[in-house]
Amino acid sequence: xxxxxxxNHLSRKTAHRKSMLANMACSLIEHKRINTTVAKxxxxxxxxxxxxxKSKEDxxxxxxxVFSKLRQKEAVTxxxxxxxxxxxxxxxxxxxxxxxxxxxxxxxxxxxxxxxxYNEIYNATKPEKKTTRRSRRGGSKPAAxxxxxxxxxxxxxxxxxx
Length: 162
Prior knowledge:
Blueprint: H1 14-31, E1 33-37, H2 38-55, H3 60-70, H4 73-86, E2 95-102, E3 109-115, H5 142-145, H6 158-161
Helix pairs in contact: 1-2, 1-4, 3-4
């Protein structure tokens, strides 16, 4: 039974686990995304998200609380200066875990953990789709309602160009 066991110990003693999570959090803040195992990524998410919440309010007390966990002055500076300005309006969920498959050597489940606001691929704003209202009596016009999709990645050979 695992009643009341909220922390994944990751097969490490307390000091080793705290040091590892602090190092991984500093790397995540510095590089904005890191590759690790799924279990470590989930533990890191629980470790780093409260610190990002604290960084939204730049006070000496919050800086000291975050520094006591991270133990790197440069990471604290980047967190409070750059990361906090990006996540200022977000109410939570600052990190994203993307599963990558299994590692070649030991078949461990790998994942990429990243800061959500720093990924331009997922945050690209999609153009608003024009919605048309269709009545029951009138005939629907599917050709006018939805334009044909445009292919962007097609290759044209020399024979087709001429």
